[in-house]
Design brief:
binds flavin-adenine dinucleotide; Butyryl-Coa Dehydrogenase, subunit A, domain 1; 3 domains; Butyryl-CoA Dehydrogenase, subunit A, domain 3; four-stranded mixed beta sheet; 414 residues; 12 helices; Butyryl-CoA Dehydrogenase, subunit A, domain 2; alpha+beta; 46% helix
Length: 414
């Protein structure tokens, strides 16, 4: 169902629909790329791969990348409603809304809030063009929820900062060429006050590693989407420190707010599509008249609609305040717990068949799409701040409940 979002949104929808009709890639086009539809889908979501590179270039030319960024920084200054329209139209056309990943979603918005004019002029166009592809260097073996305990050190050497330490769970590190990295630049002050936020090149100009060693971690789903990341004397110009030395925590809060809530309008599209695919599955299994299955599907559909309206509500707040506030934690909690529960429901509907891997060679480990969803959604209540930590944030910073007495002196967590 299309909601009437007013004349401005309708004009935008008409323009975009026409553009998509004229420009969308032919889905039957054989491109010879690896991994079949699943591989292409994964690469598309990250805006990479030969077939989607052409599509990404087209979107770039037409200025359909980084659309929520203000126009002065190369975006379109789109508000929540237009972004929602855009998601709906791309889903309707059956083409991925390629994004610049963490660069678009996390780093760019943080530079826009905290960077100097020179930093904005240097870093933002590189994200839009796809020159800089970022990964997030926040978590460490002893600093996850309690992120401010991080130990990676940053030492100033002339006009450079030299970084040494270990990060973990670094998603997409193998495909990135830049890390937005937190390091401790002053160990002698309270822990939130001695942290710097640095944009670190992962390679030197001659193509050799800038002190980065990546050790992939294999996940339940069989893929290795993240790494342990060992950093030995990686160098970055001081120009790459956002908001100045020892001011990184403020920037971090902006980044984490965007991580929890910045993609709020996109979730319902993905989950609505997944819902209808599951309905199709139920029909092929002849279970459409089973009352329990119907009840579970009704439960799921209601939640995808709530997600859609919650997304619009949150984005109205972002437009008014320029960045997502603690209420974005409600969004993170809601979609991540839904995704897990829905994946379980589909596994139950499939029954014993859900436990059998599709035919494959013995050296392969490739779950099917629903098995993959079931396994990979185990992690969604962990990354971006765990569901328990989101509840703390909602309790303390949205509802105004008293703090955990043992943590009264501490600043907010991840
Ligand atoms: C798939 C995936 C991708 C990731 N990608 C990245 C990435 O790209 N970059 C990056 O930097 N990190 C990434 N992470 C790391 C992620 O941010 C951390 O795993 C997360 O913040 C939790 O930290 P932890 O694993 O150290 O768990 P811990 O903080 O040790 O928590 C352990 C348990 O204790 C609970 N707990 C902790 N503190 C509290 C509290 N105060 N109140 C109540 N309960 C609490 C937690 O909820 C959890 O259940 C990723 C993680 C996953 C799973």
């Amino acid at each position: 169902m299309e909601i009437d979002l007013g004349p401005k949104a309708k004009a935008f929808r008409d323009e975009l629909r026409q553009w998509l009709e004229a420009n969308k890639p032919d889905p039957t086009e054989e491109d010879g790329s690896e991994g079949g539809a699943e591989g292409r889908g994964r690469r598309a979501a990250m805006g990479i791969g030969p077939e989607w590179q052409r599509w990404a270039d087209k979107l770039h030319e037409a200025r359909y990348l980084c659309v929520s960024w203000p126009e002065e920084f190369g975006g379109r200054g789109l508000g929540g409603i237009e972004v929602a329209v855009m998601n709906e139209e791309f889903a309707r056309a059956g083409v991925p809304r390629v994004t610049r990943g963490m660069g678009e979603w996390l780093v760019g918005p943080s530079i826009i809030v905290w960077g100097t004019d020179e930093q904005k002029a240097h870093f933002l166009p590189r994200i839009i063009e796809g020159t800089d592809r970022y990964c997030q260097g926040f978590s460490e073996p002893d600093a996850g929820s309690d992120l401010a305990s991080l130990k990676t050190r940053g030492v100033v050497d002339g006009d450079e900062i030299v970084i040494t330490g270990q990060k973990v769970w670094t998603s997409g590190a193998q495909m990135a060429n830049m890390m937005f990295c937190l390091c401790r630049t002053n160990p002698d002050v309270p822990k939130h006050q001695g942290i710097s936020y640095v944009l670190v090149p992962m390679k030197r100009e001659d193509g050799s590693s800038n002190g980065f060693e990546l050790s992939p971690i294999k996940q339940l789903s069989g893929t290795a989407g993240f790494t342990q990341t060992f950093i030995t004397e990686a160098r970055a110009p001081l120009f790459n420190v956002i908001a100045g030395l020892n001011n990184g925590w403020r920037v971090t809060m902006t980044t984490l707010g965007n991580e929890r809530g910045g993609n709020a309008t996109t979730q319902h599209v993905q989950y609505t599509r997944q819902f209808w695919d599951a309905v199709e599955l139920v029909r092929t299994k002849g279970k459409q008249d089973e009352p329990l299955v119907r009840q579970q599907l009704a439960w799921a559909f209601t939640r995808t609609e709530i997600m859609r309206f919650q997304g619009l509500r949150l984005l109205s707040e972002v437009v008014a305040k320029k960045e997502p506030g603690p209420a974005s934690s409600i969004n993170k909690m809601f979609w991540s717990e839904y995704a897990q529960r829905f994946a379980e429901i589909v596994m139950n509907i499939r029954g014993a068949e859900a436990m059998i891997m599709p035919p494959q060679t013995p050296d392969q480990y490739r779950p099917d799409r629903w098995q993959s969803d079931f396994l990979s959604t185990r992690s969604v209540t962990i990354w971006g701040g765990t569901a328990q930590v989101q509840r703390n944030i909602v309790g303390e910073r949205v509802l105004g409940l008293p703090k955990d007495p043992s943590k009264e002196d501490e600043r907010p967590q991840r």
